[in-house]
């Protein structure tokens, strides 16, 4: 309210003798604050509170475990490294969900298995074991998630795999989760391109195994994420040669010329389409999709190099990695959930040890 703001400004400017009084305020939306509040002499010292790093997560987890019976096999450092991007509230919920699961199964202590269950629930959503899934739908989901996992495993710059599951969680029929080895504050162009490849891996695997006419709507979220990543690369991060190092915010798009809009739209679509076509070859498909729609904005030499690289990778992956996709899908159908080590064993042709 204006009255509150005006009274706060009066006190901050020191019209009354209130020595020894310090004003501290916190907000999740600093961009919405009145400029009169944050000018020099008022709230001019800003303390940013980012998400906790590994050491911070370790201390937060230890703090919340004080009132919980913890088993000796619980490694706080492993939990902290496996929860990048978790806030303090997420970590508190992690310990609480693990304690609930331990009590549900009749355990007197919270062990590492309960912690992993709680982490998966937060990352991937609650399991829907009551959902009735047909064998054909389960098979499609298994190849979809296997495509994600296989592309993530073999793509340079992709984040390491954490888990893949075809157990329905939340609104998803399956999920492949990747976690970085350490905290990351920025990403390279190579890593963003790897994200595009992994996003399109599930859809490409469906096309390869079941045919173009039998691709499902399961790739909806993948396409949304890929579009968002490609759009940010082109309009915000300057990672596109055609558009260049210029920032175009969403609210500025209406002011741009039609030519600039078409270039941006073409480059965004080109990033995803090129990545999609390369993945068709990576996973061993024997056909190309319809000729590139948006590649008129990419130079002929770049297009030839992309095609040549895609062809080379297609020959190599077709000979060596198509069998891995079948093995991954078969293992997911059998076990429903695979962790990082188990996926590596399947890809390497080793039996899963449980």
Automatic annotation (TrEMBL):
Give a yes or no for keyword Protease in this entry. yes
UniProt similarity note? In the N-terminal section; belongs to the AAA ATPase family. In the C-terminal section; belongs to the peptidase M41 family.
Q: Which residues form the ATPase AAA-type core domain?
A: 2-51
SUPFAM superfamilies this protein is in? Answer: FtsH protease domain-like, P-loop containing nucleoside triphosphate hydrolases
GO biological process entries: mitochondrial protein quality control; mitochondrion organization
CC per GO annotation: mitochondrial inner membrane
Q: Name the chain's protein.
A: Peptidase family M41-domain-containing protein
Q: Could you tell me the keywords of this UniProt record?
A: ATP-binding, Hydrolase, Metal-binding, Metalloprotease, Nucleotide-binding, Protease, Zinc
GO molecular function: any one? ATP binding
Peptidase M41 domain sequence ranges:
132-276, 300-346
Asked if the Swiss-Prot or TrEMBL record annotates the protein with the keyword Protease, the reply is yes
Q: Which cofactor does it need?
A: Zn(2+)
Domain AAA ATPase AAA+ lid, residue spans: 73-116
Query: Origin, by domain of life?
Result: Eukaryota
């Amino acid at each position: 309210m204006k009255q509150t703001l005006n009274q706060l400004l009066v006190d901050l400017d020191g019209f009354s003798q209130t020595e020894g009084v310090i004003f501290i305020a916190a907000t999740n939306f600093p961009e919405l604050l009145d400029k009169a509040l944050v000018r020099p002499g008022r709230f001019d010292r800003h303390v940013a509170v980012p998400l906790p790093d590994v050491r911070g997560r370790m201390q937060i987890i230890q703090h919340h475990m004080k009132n919980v019976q913890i088993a000796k096999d619980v490694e706080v450092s492993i939990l902290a490294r496996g929860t990048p991007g978790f806030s303090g509230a997420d970590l508190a919920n992690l310990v609480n969900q693990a304690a609930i699961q331990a009590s549900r199964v009749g355990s007197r202590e919270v062990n590492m298995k309960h912690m992993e269950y709680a982490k998966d629930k937060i990352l991937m959503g609650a399991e829907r074991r009551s959902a009735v899934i047909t064998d054909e739908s389960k098979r499609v989901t298994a190849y979809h998630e296997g495509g994600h996992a296989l592309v993530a495993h073999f793509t340079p710059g992709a984040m390491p795999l954490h888990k893949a599951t075809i157990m329905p969680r939340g609104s998803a029929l399956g999920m492949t989760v990747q976690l970085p080895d350490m905290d990351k504050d920025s990403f390279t162009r190579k890593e963003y391109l790897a994200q595009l490849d992994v996003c399109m891996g599930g859809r490409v695997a469906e096309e390869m195994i079941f045919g173009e006419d039998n691709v499902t709507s399961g790739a909806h979220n993948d396409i949304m994420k890929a579009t968002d990543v490609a759009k940010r690369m082109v309009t915000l991060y300057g990672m596109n040669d055609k558009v260049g190092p210029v920032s175009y915010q969403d609210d500025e798009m209406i002011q741009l010329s039609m030519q600039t809009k078409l270039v941006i739209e073409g480059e965004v679509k080109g990033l995803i389409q090129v990545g999609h076509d390369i993945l068709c070859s990576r996973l061993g498909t024997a056909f190309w999709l319809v000729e590139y729609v948006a590649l008129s904005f990419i130079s002929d030499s770049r297009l030839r190099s992309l095609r040549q690289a895609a062809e080379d990778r297609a020959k190599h992956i077709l000979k060596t990695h198509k069998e891995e996709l079948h093995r991954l899908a078969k293992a997911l159908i059998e076990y429903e959930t695979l962790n990082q080590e188990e996926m590596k064993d399947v890809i390497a042709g080793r039996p899963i040890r449980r």
